[in-house]
Amino acid sequence: VDQPSREGVHLSVIDRGVAHWAGTAQAGGVGNMVLAGHRSTKTAPFRNVDRLGQGDQIRVSAVDGRTATYEVVETLIVTPADIWIAEQTETPTLTLFSCHPKGSARLRIVVRAELVDTPVVHFP
User: Fold this and answer.
1) pLDDT band at 62 (very low <50, low <70, confident <90, very high)
2) How far apart are CA 124 and CA 87, in angstroms?
3) What pLDDT band is residue 41 in, cutting at 50, 70 and 90?
4) Among 56, 57, 70, which Cα is nearest to 26's?
5) What is the distance between the alpha carbons of residues 87 and 98, in angstroms, rounded to a whole number?
6) Is the pLDDT of residue 1 over 80?
7) In Å, how far are 16, 71, 98 from 22, measured between CA atoms?
8) Secondary structure (DSSP) of 19-36
9) What share of the chain is helix, strand, coil (3-state, %, to 5)?
10) Both ends of the chain: CA-CA distance in Å?
11) Residue-wise pLDDT tens digits, 18-35
């Protein structure tokens, strides 16, 4: 996925692409950065989120040029009521979530990853 994220996880935002859960951490920051995206409708940026496996790396770039690299540690299937997935952590964490199974809104697939590098700032 190579697209900007938008703020908020309301359907009107998720329908436009990757959505950042307001109030959660920023790329590489301490806490849990939570991103949502559709799997089979609209732009479907998380179409293949189920293919991510333990040890896979995810890079998230911030507007200021920082790039944070996270490594997948687990994949979970939860209910839509499991909003604990957005709880903040004491370490830099990334959480991706989407509907599951593909084409259904019955459950959510959640991919959790931990920061594996120190964000680097690139200046123009």
Assistant:
1) confident
2) 35
3) confident
4) 70
5) 17
6) no
7) 16, 22, 16
8) EE-TTSPPTTSSSEEEEE
9) 10, 35, 55
10) 23
11) 999 999 999 988 999 999
